[in-house]
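Researcher: Next sequence.
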Amino acid sequence: MLPIISFVIALMAFALAAALAMLGRRYVPQARQRLEDIGESVRILRVSQESLERKWSEAQRRQTGNDAALEAQRSSLEELQARFEDVESYAAVCVPQKPASSGLNINRRVEAVRLLKEGHSEEQVAAELALALSEVRLIGHLEKNAPKPAPKRGRRVA
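Model: Next structure:
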């Protein structure tokens, strides 16, 4: 019985090998084509990856240059700011002060009277017209206590 079983197993193996050989002839070309397609896709992906890596390294190199330029701009800005502060500190020394206003400037006094009549405070008028607060108070006092002009009498018609 053992020889029969061995013969059957051998026969089955032979049939299986023949079937695989027949199937192999049919599917091997398709498998090879798929394998070649996969290989081509892998090559394309490698080229794309290398291109992306080159672009990435170039972008990093540009970023490093931009960072250096930005740092140079910051240092220039800080230097200019320091120079501006120096100039600003000397500005008060270099610019002559305003000459003292004469006491005979009637326009300012008239303007002070107008502003006081409009209802501005004495402090506001003094600040706006660059007058002393005591002078604005005096102008206000004089305006309040000024004699009213007498009504003009016209000629009588007979």
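Model: The chain has a mean pLDDT of 81. The chain has four helices and no strands.
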